[in-house]
Amino acid sequence: MKQPLGTIAHTRSGDKGDTSNIGVIAFQPRHYPIILREVTPARVKEFFGDLVKGGIERFELPNLGAINLLLHEALGGGGTVSLRIDAQGKTYGAALLRMEVEVD
Amino acid sequence: MIRIANGQGFWGDWLEAPVRLVDQGPIDFLVLDYLAEVTMSILQKQKQEDPALGYARDFPPLIGRLAGKLKEHNIKVVANAGGVNPTACARAVLKAAPGLKVAVVHGDDVFNRVDEFLGKGYEMRDMDTGQPISTIRKQILSANAYIGAFPLAEALDTGADVVIAGRSTDTALTLGPMVHRFKWGADDWNKLASGTIAGHIIECGAQCSGGNCQVDWQNIPNMADVGYPIVEADPDGSFTVTKHAGSGGRVHSDTVKEQLLYELGDPRHYITPDCIADFTTVQLADTGPDRVSVRGIRGGPRPPTLKLSISYTDGWKAIGTLVYSWPQAVEKARAADRIVRERLAGLGLCFDEIHTELFGLNACNGPAAPPNPDPPEIQLRIGVRGQDRKALDRFTRELIPLVLNGPPGATGFGDGRPPVREIVAYWSTLIPREEIQTRVEVIS
Q1: CA-CA distance, B195 to B175, in Å (whole number)?
Q2: Are B303 and B436 in contact (CB under 8 A)?
Q3: What is the mean pLDDT of residues A69-91?
């Protein structure tokens, strides 16, 4: 069954230069394998489209039931250079909650 | 056990937070994080205009306001409020609170050593782009090494009431008091990693105690009086994150997890001047109302290099806005954007970038935003940046005329022409740590 990611996880996002990071945290331990299977770099890249110019890295934190996504070249140059309203990617985590995931 | 509280997540954070932390219950150390990358360049500019400035000016009056209670409860303050002029900051603190003993950490400011480093053959290549620093040498505004917890602990060892540093890392402000009180060694990697992660959890103030929390945010109590975070640290490295009883907000494993993930890179290699912390070893448990226990943290040896944060000027930018109302607000805003771009091109103006966002449609999230086909109003937001100040000035004249000579229904021009701002960009590079020698000075 397809559901928005926000039904099984919460997120927080921020910046380091022109890279945005999104932490995706499972609400329940049983949701963590779903996140690992569904929230892949390729899917995240497709979801954000041309907002993210560079590649996407994913790190796993099984101890927290969480993954950390790094979205490179995602902030229009980042920090003070960027002309974007969300130059720090503060809202990217919330945006990702809309991504549809297949929940068993 | 010692209690370390964070009362300021950045310069501009809630002024009342440190006062409430001192008033609402017991703490041993009050740590205040004032510095972001952008702050260093602002402070450097202020110091160039007035040699007595260049530090976080909120800090001395705050210490003046708190001085009596700091003494009464024996609370020590550790802050990176010194910016690029910690000595001037210390003098201002002593003026505001004459009875306190103040210690200053020197050595992070390498603004006057860039040519010395170049002479030694350090190219100081940017960690992201790989470019050598010679490409921006003349544009440098500030240069600081990130320093760790040990100089802060040394300053506390002098018996100082207030420790003022320049560009110490955010996490070192919390780790420093632990190193001081628990006498941790420079190779106690697991303990240093624990204190570092404690610092990461509380360095953004209330962002771990209910602020910016997605989980059940509507029901987090009394955010008007949100409690700022406190770490109760034990000598073995384990600690509990909490806040004062009766304050608002929430400390829960959900709020702590969100903050653990904030601005994180590779979780196994969180690199600081003191150690490399492994976030995949963190074990959390909710042990009571507003209490989260943290244990199990492991870390590895500190790197042989320190990171330099260098700010430099990189041209100018301006962002202009106009509001278009229903009907066809999106189409009108897009038409206006095309007109502005045509006019700028017709004037022969050159920019490094022109960036348009439709605020109310998808400005924050672009293609990831939910569909909103017929919004009642849209703010057109056009930003430009470039090296030619005159071209930027001319751009700022091109939006308001559209109210009369563009698509119908434009408003929201009441603030007039947008300001042109100088862009301060950042350069991160590494330097052998032996080049940076810190020194503690007690000022009275």
Answers
A1: 5
A2: no
A3: 95
A18 → chain B, closest CA residue: B128
The model's pLDDT over B371-418, given as tens digits with 9 standing for 90+, comes to: 999 999 999 999 999 999 999 999 999 999 999 999 999 999 888 899
Q: How far apart are CA B76 and CA A68, in angstroms?
A: 35
Q: CA-to-CA distance for A62 and B272, rounded, in angstroms? A: 23
Domain A2-102 sits in CATH at 3.30.70
* Closest alpha carbon to B271 in B294, B245, B304: B304
Domains and CATH numbers, chain B: 2-108+146-303 (no CATH), 313-426 (3.30.70)
> Which regions of B387-438 does DSSP assign to beta strands (E)?
410-411, 421-432
CA–CA separation, B279 vs B261, rounded Å? 9
In chain B, residues 360-399 whose CB comes closer than 8 Å to chain A: 363-370, 381, 383-385
What pLDDT does residue B45 have? 84
List, for residues A90-100, the tens digit of each pLDDT value: 999 999 999 99
Q: Which ipTM was obtained for this model? A: 0.98
The DSSP annotation for B332-361 comes to HHHHHHHHHHHHHHHTT---SEEEEEEETT
Mean residue pLDDT of chain B comes to 96
Delimit the domains of chain A by residue range: 2-102
Q: Which of A15, A17, A25 sits opposite B128 (nearest CB)?
A: A17
CA distance B334 to B378: 10
> If you count residue pairs, one on A and one on B, with CB atoms under 8 Å apart, how many are there?
129
* 3-state class (DSSP) for residue B21: helix
Q: What is the phi/psi pair of residue B191, to 5°?
A: -70, -45
pTM of the model: 0.97
Per residue in B13-72, pLDDT tens?
999 999 999 999 999 999 999 998 778 888 988 998 999 999 999 999 999 999 999 999
Q: What is the pLDDT of residue B415?
A: 85
- Top residue of B264, B358, B359 to mutate, by most chain A CBs within 10 Å, is B264
Single-letter residue type at B282: V
Which residues 6+ apart lie within 8 Å of B41 measured at CB?
B141, B142, B311, B424
Nearest-angstrom CA–CA distance, B331 and B324: 9
Q: What is the pLDDT of chain A when averaged over all its residues?
A: 97
The C-alpha atoms of residue A13 and residue B60 are separated, in whole angstroms, by: 33
